[in-house]
Design a protein that fits this description.
about 475 residues, 18 strands
């Protein structure tokens, strides 16, 4: 199939344009999907609402875990200039309630990036692979045939209506994507059990300080004064810091932003600091979508809940989701069959790579909504940093008897929380085991979901939390 226009965003507006794959959104997942499709010799277009200058400029903590392991569709060498700090090697968790700081080792290669520069570079990488980019293009609706297969999108590009048709549409439009609101997915396996309370808002500023910070090798976290939020201080360099906070959609945003500004004023290293850039965004703090496929359609990255629900990290996962979706699309196009069943391998690969782990981590996110923040912070202060890191990034942690005894001695007064955490860990482990048995096709999907829902009832009972889904 040959596209009806060439060049990255320079073609005429209006009319109908046809591609093998239509990608909506020029974020990490979208760019890696488009690059993978184009590298395989197929036609891909990326439809992006921002202009060419602003594309890639999004609110992000700028921390990148797994910097050593990215899909090959865009060479890592292309990204390295955007990695402004590769000396970060651990997390620093400040717990003012306990007047303590936890130094937490983080597995894998870490980096802090300039997200706008990174955004430009992944766009450039996908463009060099042969993908087209159409900027200033706002998607308004999803096209489907009489059988419900997604066949394209309608949009307004630079003020003119335009239709994009493709064998497969990949939704990389971010959290609470408009495509999922517009498409009729009632007869598909695609996860529609999605609402705003499963997401958080994030706000960040880029701050310049006069003197190098002492913690330029660490990612600094700190709980907010109110529940359901945390502050971060991530050093792009020793004098350029990404400062921000994330908080559940149910919280009052401006009150929490005041918490960040108050904390900044109270930190000596930020005296006289200059703010360069301010941005906000929404991101999922939930399990990955049960299924992110429908006939002719797949969702990737934030649009499919592909974010670590405890840390908000999602760049590496989004890159691989884009790769897996594109490879499923290529196979389906070659088969002449873009049905849900023929795209299903995408779901399997996501769950095998990181989906099961993120589902387990979501259990701890649920727990945090049901326990007293001060009690939780007190308990965290009693845990060894390596075990806390293991839980944060794997969804589980092994705890021997000696460690249990040491923790118990340090945790006098928190025994109720410890017992709840112990029960929660058991439920998280059971859930991860279940996700590792994700079905190999849609026929067994309903039974898998029913058993998962039973396990989630056990989670709510163990944590005392209100149902999230």
């Amino acid at each position: 199939m040959t596209s009806s226009e060439a060049g990255s965003g320079a073609a005429p507006t209006g009319g109908t344009r046809t591609y093998d794959v239509v990608v909506v959104g020029a974020g990490t997942a979208g760019c890696y999907a488009a690059a993978t499709v184009a590298n395989a010799g197929y036609d891909a277009v990326v439809v992006e609402r921002k202009d060419a200058e602003e594309a890639g400029h999004i609110a992000c903590g700028d921390a990148l875990k797994g910097a050593d392991a990215f899909p090959e569709a865009i060479p890592k060498s292309k990204l390295e200039p955007a990695m402004t700090n590769t000396d970060v090697d651990h997390g620093r968790f400040e717990i003012p309630q306990e007047d303590t700081v936890l130094e937490i080792p983080v597995p894998g290669e870490l980096a802090v990036i300039d997200r706008w520069e990174y955004g430009r570079r992944i766009i450039e990488g996908a463009d060099e692979a042969g993908a087209e980019f159409h900027y200033d293009t706002v998607v308004q609706d999803v096209r489907q045939d009489d059988e419900g297969r997604v066949t394209g999108v309608t949009a307004v590009r630079k003020g003119e209506p335009v239709t994009y048709e493709g064998d497969v549409v990949i939704d990389g439009a971010g959290s609470l994507s408009i495509l999922q609101d517009k498409a009729d997915l009632a007869d598909a396996s695609f996860d529609t059990n999605v609402n705003y309370s499963q997401f958080c808002s994030a706000y960040r500023e880029i701050v310049h300080v006069d003197e190098p910070v002492e913690w330029d090798d660490a990612l600094v976290f700190k709980p907010t004064e109110r529940a359901a939020g945390y502050l971060w201080y991530f050093p792009r360099t020793d004098t350029e810091i990404n400062v921000g906070l994330g908080f559940q959609m149910t919280e009052e945003p401006m009150q929490l932003v005041d918490d960040l500004k108050r904390d900044l004023r109270n930190r000596e290293e930020f005296e006289g600091a200059e703010v360069e850039d301010k941005l906000g965004a929404a991101l999922p703090t939930r399990r990955p979508y049960d299924s992110a496929v429908a006939p002719g359609f797949m969702a990737v990255g934030d649009a499919a809940g592909h974010v670590n629900p405890t840390t908000g990290g999602g760049i590496a996962g989004a890159a691989y989701a884009g790769k897996y979706a594109a490879e499923a699309a290529i196979g389906a196009i070659e088969d002449g069959d873009v049905s849900e069943a023929n795209l299903w391998e995408y779901n399997e690969r996501v769950m095998d790579h990181f989906g099961a782990r993120y589902a387990g981590l979501d259990v701890y996110n649920i727990l945090s909504t049901a326990v007293d923040v001060d009690d939780l912070m007190g308990l965290l202060a009693s845990l060894p940093g390596d075990k806390l890191a293991e839980a944060l990034y794997s969804g589980s942690a092994s705890i021997g008897w000696k460690l249990k005894l040491q923790t118990a001695i340090k945790s006098v007064g928190y025994y109720d929380v410890i017992w709840t955490l112990y029960k929660t860990k058991q439920r998280a482990d059971e859930l991860i085991d279940h996700y590792e048995r994700y079905p190999s096709g849609p026929d067994a999907f309903a039974d898998w979901q029913a058993r998962r829902d039973d396990l989630m009832e056990d989670v709510y009972e163990a944590t005392g939390a209100e149902p999230k889904y």
